[in-house]
Amino acid sequence: MNIRFSVPATQEGITQGADQITSFLEAAHAPVQLSYHLGLAYEELATNIVKYGYEYKQATEQDVILISIELSGTPPDASQIRIEDHSHPYNPFEQPPQSDIESAAEDRAIGGLGIHLLRKLASHVSYERHDDKNITILAFKDQDPAL
């Protein structure tokens, strides 16, 4: 089962996309854990696109985030989420891995934990820049261990 849609590259668009993903995953009877992982991946990556991908220019009505989700349907195959945007080149996985996960939350620098968590949860992550698009793909094994 698959879904493909786009949302505006805005905070409101992120919320719209989260609602569409939730409805799709519920209708597909996706496992709760997989639904959580795919939803988390979408929200983290879409937020980073809006926050960092468009940091040098304000997103316009024509700027959208394209989301594709493919559910494997056959454990332990991997389901995946693919997110594309036309912001400036921005690879969320170029950042060094979050190293300070031992300190208290109030003592840590802001940022980095979401991507760190996605690296830990996903069975595969990839980024490429193609035809002026950022393309980020994360795969999650349908039997990944729970958080």
Describe this structure in words.
This protein has a five-stranded antiparallel β-sheet, with helices on one face. The chain has a single domain, classed as Histidine kinase-like ATPase, C-terminal domain (Heat Shock Protein 90, 2-Layer Sandwich). The mean pLDDT is 85. Strand 4 and strand 5 form a beta hairpin. The protein is globular, with a radius of gyration of 15 Å. With 147 residues, the protein is of the alpha+beta class.
CATH topology assignment: Heat Shock Protein 90
Q: How can the largest sheet be summarized?
A: 5 strands, antiparallel
Low-confidence stretches: none
- What is the N-to-C order of secondary-structure elements (H for helix, E for strand)? EHHEEHEE
CATH architecture: 2-Layer Sandwich
Approximately how much helix is present in the residues? 25-40%
The CATH homologous superfamily corresponds to Histidine kinase-like ATPase, C-terminal domain
- CATH level 1 class label: Alpha Beta
Oligomer: single chain
Strand arrangement, major sheet:
1-2-3-5-4
Ends apart, CA distance between termini: 25 Å
Keywords for this entry:
Heat Shock Protein 90, single chain, alpha+beta, 5 strands, 147 residues
Summarize the SSE layout with pairings.
Elements: E1 2-8, H1 11-27, H2 32-53, E2 64-70, E3 78-85, H3 113-121, E4 124-130, E5 133-141
Antiparallel strand pairs: 1-2, 2-3, 3-5, 4-5
Helix pairs in contact: 1-2, 2-3
